[in-house]
Design a protein that fits this description.
Layout: H1 5-12, H2 23-28, H3 40-55, E1 78-82, E2 87-90, H4 113-122, E3 126-132, E4 145-155, E5 166-174, E6 180-188, E7 193-200, E8 209-214, E9 232-234, E10 240-242, E11 251-255, E12 263-270, E13 278-286, E14 290-295, E15 302-310, E16 315-322, E17 328-336, E18 339-348, E19 353-357, H5 358-361, E20 368-376, E21 384-392, E22 397-401, E23 404-405, E24 412-413, E25 419-420
Antiparallel strand pairs: 1-2, 1-5, 3-4, 4-5, 6-12, 7-11, 7-13, 8-12, 9-10, 13-14, 15-20, 15-23, 16-19, 16-21, 17-18, 17-20, 21-22, 24-25
Length: about 425
């Protein structure tokens, strides 16, 4: 079976992990409690629930209601800060109130995560990944745990409730080893298929939920790409899951059916609890070309991947996906031998993606090229994921390439010799 380059790229590359299709229903569920926070979408709904409650307060004393079990469960709690990083209220640690946390940095990545939270709030709301003290783990203040935070701005309803009128409310979930997996690309159709191979890393059984999204970030009906039956069932929220739980260290493979027209996009796998880590890989099967696997995609502000091309032979393709709920434009540089040959802008819609070969991304002659491509997001609260492949269908070459995060790496000179900040 002979496949064109464009069809192969469509079938192999694609990124659009977006929960936009789920957000309306979840956001309307204002009764969600801390106990129900399991993933990024229930986290957002929980913050919005807390925001609606606080905005409706007519008696400042009712803020203490946020200490009850509806609003605090295990490591899930709410907090309120102003846009200078001063904590105004905290549902887990009252000692943090009135403290200026604006200068805090992630002890593992060095990222100024409080600044990132402020920037996300000022942009209308958003997610930030960082490390922070997990109150459910004794001694965690010395080590900290990976956390996904979500914040939204709101106006204080009472002058005596918070000294600042413009503040933001937030919460977060501690990720453990891996609460959720983002596979930045999958393909199905025209005999192309994808296998999602999952392993339960928890000490207790889990039922992972697998969501498929198209290149525009819209939720795909799982029954259109997976044969539902046997141990697989579709959920009311548009995921495919297991009828029976996956045992500790158990493994399961969920495969697309390879049928119909080519569909590309991304996959999100969610464990069923913050203490239920899960691991896995996604494996592509392209008839006549080969099989290649890739791990979960990492959220980055800047990244680099190797690239090469020979006219009529091997080529490098890449897909870039916007993790933000607002449009952004990535700045990408084609480099060889440390020299920037060309810069290009890659506009990405909210939760959207773009997939191209390097010969389509840049105008520079890449007919005999060996180098790299670096891409950078414009703001500290904006992140993306990426995947790259090397492809030579005629010679059966098909392999995934590492997309390497560049957080904290020195600025790189641009094509005009000026330094480009990350």
């Amino acid at each position: 079976m002979k496949l064109s380059r464009s069809l192969l790229l469509m079938g192999i590359l694609g990124l659009a992990v977006g929960f936009s299709a789920l957000q309306p229903a979840l956001a309307q569920d204002m009764g969600i409690t801390a106990r129900e926070v399991l993933d990024r979408e229930t986290l957002k709904a929980f913050v919005r629930s807390g925001k609606a409650y606080v905005e409706g307060i007519t008696d400042a004393a009712r803020i203490d209601d946020l200490f009850n079990e509806q609003w605090k469960f295990g490591s899930v709690y709410l907090y309120v800060s102003n846009d200078e990083g001063v904590v105004l209220w905290h549902g887990a640690n009252a000692a943090l109130v009135d403290q200026d946390l604006s200068g805090l940095k992630d002890q593992f990545t060095g990222a100024p995560f409080v600044e990132e939270l402020i920037a996300a709030a000022n942009s209308g709301g958003g997610y930030v990944e960082y490390h922070f003290d997990d109150p459910s783990i004794e001694g965690d203040e010395d080590h900290t745990s990976p956390k996904l935070g979500y914040v939204e701005p709101f106006t204080s309803p009472l002058p005596d409730l918070f000294p600042d009128q413009e503040v933001f409310i937030g919460s977060g979930i501690y990720l453990g080893h891996q609460l959720a997996l983002d596979f930045a690309h999958f393909g199905n159709g025209a005999a192309i298929s994808s296998d999602i191979v999952l392993v339960n890393l928890a000490a207790t059984p889990v039922r992972p939920a697998v969501y498929f999204y198209d290149e525009m970030g819209e939720l795909i009906d799982p029954a259109s790409v997976v044969d539902i039956g046997g141990n697989l069932e579709a959920t009311d929220h548009g995921a495919v899951t297991l009828q029976s739980e996956l045992a500790p260290l158990g493994e399961v493979t969920i495969s697309t059916n390879g049928e119909g027209e080519t569909v590309t996009g991304s996959v999100k796998v969610i464990s069923d609890g913050p203490d239920s880590p899960i691991g896995g890989v996604l494996r592509f099967d392209v008839p006549g070309v080969g099989v290649a696997g890739v791990g979960a995609s990492e959220a980055v502000r800047a990244a680099i991947f190797p690239a090469r091309r020979q006219a009529g032979g091997i080529d490098t393709g890449a897909a870039l996906r916007n993790l933000s709920e607002k449009d952004l434009t990535l700045s990408c540089s084609l480099t060889m031998g440390g020299e920037v040959l060309e810069e290009a802008e890659v506009p990405l819609a909210a939760n959207g993606q773009d997939a191209k070969f390097i010969s389509e991304m840049f105008e520079h002659d890449t007919s005999d090229f060996t180098g790299s491509v670096r891409c950078t997001a414009p703001g500290i609260a904006q992140k993306f994921t990426g995947v790259a492949v090397e492809l030579d269908g005629g010679n059966g070459i098909f392999t995934t390439l590492p997309v390497i995060p560049l957080e904290g790496v020195m600025p790189m000179p641009s094509a005009d010799g000026m330094a480009v900040e990350q």
